[in-house]
Design goal:
Layout: E1 2-5, E2 8-14, H1 18-23, E3 34-37, E4 42-44, E5 52-57, E6 63-70, E7 75-77, E8 86-90
Parallel strand pairs: 2-3
Antiparallel strand pairs: 1-2, 3-8, 4-7, 5-6, 5-8
Length: about 110
């Protein structure tokens, strides 16, 4: 799966098992891809080596919130009454053109 942002294509990997959900983007330098955490409402940036952008999505991939350049050692928690949110972690400064209400289309 990929996402196109500003004419650049980023591979998107899904964190679907315990290990991939636990590891996420920890210990990664020069991040050039994203990770989608289905059915998730919080992430942490402990053990991250660079900032990341975070997009919170509902079950229809509609953006609920965006966070830019989240530095290491932070916790992001999004409370949503339906609890069917997903989180997309991206390289820093890639989500600047996304806004609440936009729909993300994965190819």
């Amino acid at each position: 799966m990929v996402i196109k942002i500003n004419n650049k294509i980023y591979p998107i990997y899904q964190a679907t098992n315990f290990f991939t959900r636990l590891k996420g983007l920890m210990f990664q330098k020069n991040i050039n891809y994203g990770i989608l955490f289905p059915r998730c409402n919080s992430i942490h940036t402990f053990f991250m080596l660079s900032p990341i952008d975070v997009i919170i999505l509902d079950q229809d991939n509609k953006i609920l919130a965006t966070y830019q350049n989240i530095v290491p050692n932070r916790i992001i928690h999004y409370h949503h009454p339906i609890k069917k949110t997903s989180i997309l972690e991206l390289p820093p400064n890639t989500s600047l053109n996304f806004h609440s209400g936009d729909i993300i289309t994965f190819q």
